[in-house]
Amino acid sequence: MSKKLTSRAEDYSKWYNELVVKADLAENSAVRGCMVIKPYGYAIWEKMQAELDKMFKETGHQNAYFPLFVPKSLFEAEEKNAEGFAKECAIVTHYRLQNDPDKPGKLRVDPEAKLEEELIVRPTSEAIIWNTFRGWVQSYRDLPLLINQWANVVRWEMRTRLFLRTAEFLWQEGHTAHATKEEAISEAELMNNVYATFVEKFMAIPVVQGLKTESERFAGADETYCIEALMQDGKALQAGTSHFLGQNFAKAFDVKFANKEGKQDYVWATSWGVSTRLMGALIMTHSDDFGLVLPPSLAPNQVVIVPIYKSEEDLNAITEVADSILSDLRAKNITVKFDNRTTHRPGAKFAQHELQGVPLRIAIGARDLANGTVELARRDTLTKEVVPLDSLNEKIETLLKDIQESLFKKASDFRNEHTTEVDTFDAFKTVLETKTGFISAHWDGTNETEDKIKELTKATIRCIPLDGKEEEGVCVYSGKPSKRRVLFAKAY
Amino acid sequence: MSKKLTSRAEDYSKWYNELVVKADLAENSAVRGCMVIKPYGYAIWEKMQAELDKMFKETGHQNAYFPLFVPKSLFEAEEKNAEGFAKECAIVTHYRLQNDPDKPGKLRVDPEAKLEEELIVRPTSEAIIWNTFRGWVQSYRDLPLLINQWANVVRWEMRTRLFLRTAEFLWQEGHTAHATKEEAISEAELMNNVYATFVEKFMAIPVVQGLKTESERFAGADETYCIEALMQDGKALQAGTSHFLGQNFAKAFDVKFANKEGKQDYVWATSWGVSTRLMGALIMTHSDDFGLVLPPSLAPNQVVIVPIYKSEEDLNAITEVADSILSDLRAKNITVKFDNRTTHRPGAKFAQHELQGVPLRIAIGARDLANGTVELARRDTLTKEVVPLDSLNEKIETLLKDIQESLFKKASDFRNEHTTEVDTFDAFKTVLETKTGFISAHWDGTNETEDKIKELTKATIRCIPLDGKEEEGVCVYSGKPSKRRVLFAKAY
């Protein structure tokens, strides 16, 4: 067994990095900033994908696939968007290697094989998709277009961390086209809601829905909706965004339609995405010093059975009981694994499943067989109890629900305890230095104040909460009048 | 309605290109050689993915994800493989754009942002994966590694065609590592079998399983297994390959393990893949001059219901019947769509569903309601019949099975009729000029003869069939002795 994780109290960042690798979720690769998502990590991502995909389809969206590359001339067509990504994009300039005349056995870029126009590896696909939509939309009958794509994207980030910020990441990007502004705004709101529902219900992470300020908005958007979550170290994490793009892309790519009156008008757009970054949120919200803690909804194995035996005879008897548990639980759509590897001792198996966050562990030994019981251990609370075999199935069903709910409750309590209303800049700074978390404060609505606060404290405006009430107040920094509180935090 | 397709007899290639676009499967993009897979085409691909993924998991494989980029030094580590792909790879050389000082509002590659080492966009992932496997394998206990990846890959092909040959395509690539040669060979055979089962059972396309000759083998493989299908124009299409890679990649990337005796040995490897090229095979095997014909197993909608009405009242009555059919069929896991669009007339709907290959179409009019019947049309045979409502569900279930089977039978009959044994080179050439298809002939086993035949006839050896019998003969070209027949054909 590898030695214990660094504790969160000792070094939160180190704890996270160690956990991701030791729990077999992901690792760094030979390509700077690009990760390998390992089978166990990928199995969690697949469960997230499956749920999201179902929710997208239930809300009328269809999947499609668009090219990995964006020609430079398309990339730069929507200026704000291009500017937003120009500083961190991977660029394909050549299409052939040749033998290196100076280094036998080595290859080099063939200078003759230069592309006429450079290709940008998509950092996001608005440009290539809106260039395609032009051919798909003639009249209002062709609208709305409700498209989603599951894809890899590349942003050449300089400082990377597994799942949280990587040069290549996996995501889904929704791109929709509408006849009216109102419909597009509703779509952007709907999808932000879908994200909130998914993250709260399946990932057991409470989120605040809100709007981004102008400076934090997606490049090319008129309005960015977001869901913001709070991690255990008191830093916020943007878990998903949904953009109302106005007619910016339609104008840049000349996507017009004939409305019911036969008049030509530009189409209204949205885009929305969540990524493998959600894996980072999942890990940082629930896990502890012993390793990963997974909500049952997303655990590749919800239950694991470990046999404890000295003789072949014991193992056979235990296997018989395990098989019956397996078939009972599978009949209830509970994922369960019988860990009967002969290469590992029970202690090592316990440690591995604890590290990998399996919600429930059943241990069966010879004495259990005699008593008609098993030992049931719960990962989130680290508690154990002896359960009679005849009530096991029901117990497990109840516990899985309970774990899902109590993880959400625990995270909600943490988030609520770490959301502080402040009315002075001194109090603002004190919160950041002591308890951290979200700070709810009045802001005068200007970029200058936002920038100044960021410069002084590193805290940014995470969002203007959608459920915030109108309330007369004064800006915590400038003292100018303000009509509502916004949420500040240091963020990932 | 758009005008009719070019017929297959008139111009097969044009028929294919038109069909792919008109049936809303895919289209060309602004990026040379890269396609857009449209929602209807992607829905078919998703069904294929789902079935294959299930089969991979049932055979013990796990999904993972590896970087899009391969550093040049890793790419060239396995020489044959590097050589095989060097001539057609997209190369990232820079990571930033900047404002073009000569052209206001335009961007250019920032010459300061040159990568230290060029990155190849993966044409296949052996290099990056085996470089990763080195860290995953220490002892025989870590083996086998049974990994699959769903991904996009790029091969800078000069002549491209939608689905059949595109610069970027989607695929899955399996990569496995084993302790023994025998186990790796079994794995390569098993996965070729999985492909054959999938293609025959779900795609309703008969295939020949075989081995590739040395010159047609995957670069870096010791042996390539393949499945070969025959298209309606008599050309063969390689539908999937499974490679036994020997220890070539293990040696290139130094992947060793301690065997049970504690001795260090290189790991044995396989890789296997199928791609969106299968979409091309699916289209070309079954479709006709009226459009796409889909096997029910892969049809996004197996049944479509079209209402025929003059009054609102009729529509309401039809809708009631349709709703009951919908819920009955869905209860049987049959995918069905009620096409109640008010923007299109029934004739246009009929034409669209025919073009898009929906296996069964139900039309319901006012007279049908009075008679308690519907009109049921079958896409593959273009036959119609009147069916009483009370036997409709059963009828549909039977027909869907029948369509699946009869498409396979039709394609098998065609393949068998277009497989010709020849014993002279004159006969060989005559077959290619007249009936085309597979030619079963003796070959002397040399590269020279293979090359010469290709040069003279454009036919290549598609495979050495696995089920071929030993049979004394003489090479159809050189007259030298041969022990078994191989399959020649012109190919995609």
UniProtKB/TrEMBL annotation, chains A, B:
This is Proline--tRNA ligase. It is found in: Cytoplasm. Pfam families: HGTP_anticodon, ProRS-C_1, tRNA-synt_2b. It comes from the Bacteria. Residues 27-295 form the Aminoacyl-transfer RNA synthetases class-II family profile domain. Consists of three domains: the N-terminal catalytic domain, the anticodon-binding domain and the C-terminal extension. GO terms for molecular function: ATP binding; proline-tRNA ligase activity. InterPro entries: aa-tRNA-synt_IIb, aa-tRNA-synth_II, aa-tRNA-synth_II/BPL/LPL, Anticodon-bd, Anticodon-bd_dom_sf, Pro-tRNA-ligase_IIa_arc-type, Pro-tRNA_ligase_II_C, Pro-tRNA_synth_II. Homodimer. Keywords: Aminoacyl-tRNA synthetase, ATP-binding, Cytoplasm, Ligase, Nucleotide-binding, Protein biosynthesis. Belongs to the class-II aminoacyl-tRNA synthetase family. ProS type 3 subfamily. The gene is proS. Catalyzes the attachment of proline to tRNA(Pro) in a two-step reaction: proline is first activated by ATP to form Pro-AMP and then transferred to the acceptor end of tRNA(Pro). GO terms for biological process: prolyl-tRNA aminoacylation. One of its GO terms (cellular component) is aminoacyl-tRNA synthetase multienzyme complex. It catalyses: tRNA(Pro) + L-proline + ATP = L-prolyl-tRNA(Pro) + AMP + diphosphate. Its EC number is 6.1.1.15. PANTHER family: BIFUNCTIONAL GLUTAMATE_PROLINE--TRNA LIGASE (PTHR43382:SF2), PROLYL-TRNA SYNTHETASE (PTHR43382). The keyword Protein biosynthesis applies.
